[in-house]
Specification:
The chain has 271 residues and is α+β, with helices and mostly antiparallel strands. The protein has 3 domains: 30 residues; 139 residues, CalX-beta domain (Immunoglobulin-like), CATH 2.60.40.2030; 78 residues, no CATH class. The chain contains 5 helices and 10 strands.
Length: 271
């Protein structure tokens, strides 16, 4: 009976150990990945966490990094995006090379938009647990027509093992496309037909903090990216917004701005 008890105890201990090991690996898809400790070193892209509805960080990661030039003045011609690569495991007293490949069949950005050589000769330096890939993105004409992307993948080598699923790959997407916002159709009586030139100027004139009044639709502070769904009685309900709208109209009265810079078309004027 004592031997049977010992045997059962040993098997239960083994089963419990396996369960704990599986639980540790299961946790590697969420925030625990940042503090997971193992004798084997792994690499992953440290992309942002998905936010909950209340703005707090969830347990899950994004799979992409996005950037748009569209909300910035035309004087902004480039921007540097940071792609952070982190390790799981112990730091070492020597540099550890790692490999990142460009997935060509789904990468649409060209050398005019970025420099592919930034992924060459990467390493986790001695005493370090992370590295940052700096991608300098150029604001080309092509970006005003469509989104472009760079797709990167970590390749295991003698220093780092593969692991952790989607965090081995990342999409870095960028554009200069200023899409028509959902609220615009409710404001055509004020802003007229949609033109990116008008929207870009409105972004410039009406940033967050310019108006301390709140949107009746959601109770949040008004600015270019939190507009009321329509312009009904906006001059009385939103007097500060109305002042900026008048300034926008005056700007296009005093300046000849053409759709997409095409002077063969009439200059843009507001209603």
């Amino acid at each position: 009976m004592k031997r049977l008890y010992t045997l059962l105890t040993h098997r239960l201990a083994n089963a419990f150990s396996i369960f704990c090991l599986l639980a540790v690996f299961a946790s590697c898809d969420n925030k625990d990945i940042d503090s997971f400790d193992t004798a084997t070193s792994y690499l992953y892209f440290d992309v942002p966490y998905i936010l909950n509805a209340d703005g707090t960080s969830s347990e899950f990661r994004e799979d992409s990094i996005y950037y748009s030039f569209a909300i910035y003045p035309e004087t902004v011609t480039s921007n540097t995006l940071k792609v952070v690569v982190k390790t799981i495991g112990m730091a070492t007293d020597y540099d550890r090379p790692y490999t990142v490949e460009i997935v060509d069949d789904i990468t649409t950005a060209t050398s005019a938009e970025w420099d592919p050589s930034v992924v060459d000769n990467r390493s986790i330096k001695a005493g370090e647990l992370a590295d940052t890939i700096f991608i300098d993105v150029q604001r080309t004409k092509a970006l005003s027509e469509r989104w472009m992307q760079v797709y990167l993948r970590i390749i295991p080598n003698e220093y780092f093992a593969a692991g952790y699923g989607t965090l081995q790959e990342v999409k870095v997407a960028f554009s200069d496309v200023l899409a028509e916002p959902s609220w615009w159709r409710g404001w055509t009586g004020v802003f007229g037909s949609y033109y990116p030139e008008v929207y870009r100027k409105w972004i410039e004139l009406y940033p967050l903090g310019a108006d301390h009044n709140t949107n009746i639709d959601n109770g949040e502070q008004l600015y270019w990216n939190n507009m009321p769904s329509n312009s009904t009685q906006y001059q009385s309900w939103y007097p500060v917004l109305a002042l900026y709208a008048a300034e926008l109209k005056e700007y296009f009265e005093l300046n000849d701005v053409y759709p997409n810079g095409d002077t063969s078309l009439p200059a843009i004027k507001l209603p």
